[in-house]
Amino acid sequence: MAATPKFLLRVYVTTDVAIKVTLTERPESVKELINILREKAKPRLDFEFTLHYEDPDFGGQLSCLVDIQELPEKATLKIIRSESDTSSCASSDTDILPLVPISQCQKSWPDIFPVPAFSYEVEHVLEEGNSAFATSGKTLKLTRSQKHNILENMAAVMYNFKPYPSDNNVGMAAEALVTAHPCLKEPGSVSGWYGWKMSLKFKMGDYRGKLSRSGCLEVSVNAGRRSKNNPEKEHPHSNIKRARRAEVIFLPNFPKGESQASLAEMRLQIMDEVQKSQQNLRLIEMLMQKTFSLRRQEIIQENPQVKNFLEKWPALRIESQVKHRLTSLFCYSSHIFICQIFCMYRIQMEQQMPLFTVGKNYHFLYVAMLLNNVF
Fold first, then answer.
1. How many domains does one find in the chain?
2. What local confidence, expressed as pLDDT, does residue 244 receive?
3. d(CA 34, CA 9)
4. What integer is the mean pLDDT of 217-223?
């Protein structure tokens, strides 16, 4: 005779996916329950996590399952990735916002542009063309598909550094391409790469358009501007939203498996946790990491007032969060050092100009700090 199920569990392995688990007896520990869930949901739970359950004593709000005796016979559980898991939270001070894919983290433009590898056919043609150019000075004539392959690969590498490269940046990329492959030099051109520069400019616009249509927020935020059908909208080249200097993560997409609604629920959970007398700082840190993309979207697209934004995200007032957001990593000494340098430069400015002028010249102060390699 089959044993009657004693425990009926509904387990959310992701925000939108739940599985039903029945147990004949209460597990001996929370760790044993975690192992059972790992076995039931293979391979979805191949990471470190903690269990949270809807606590009936608090109106169904989530509570961390610490004691197995607290588990109701009929319960709804939610999987929360542990901070020790390297795929979701930082494991060291050098991990910067790990929930954001590395592909969405911008790098500084290099002094020497790295020319990528192209398709096998194009690489073979370029090798033969470089040999012919070295012996006879004959330039290479590419087919349409070959040129498309070169421009597509170059645009992908350029986007990794800057979605909106400047005229000088594009010129550096074109010059690096012709330097690496002399057979691509344009006869009759003073520089030998001006035509490639213009082609790369158009290709970058086309590449951004593809990413925008695929849902990449970093470039789609600038889509839908003035056109023939919408002449009243903003000019396509004015007020472009792009990363500023030292911004490595400008407008990332939502984490995998999350939506705007699920992240909004996490924001409410953060607000509830901040109001408690005994705050769970680890839980707040984890939720703040997950909701980073939602905050960036609000800042870039809605341009809210600071007061309203802090009311909506009260965890930003917590000391650990202030230091984390200023330095991109938890490094107290770096934070204090920058504050000390900032104060030192402000004192110097106050000594050299009237007091009423100082408040209007903070941008000069910031430039002075940059020129002196403070950052």
1. 4
2. 56
3. 13
4. 64
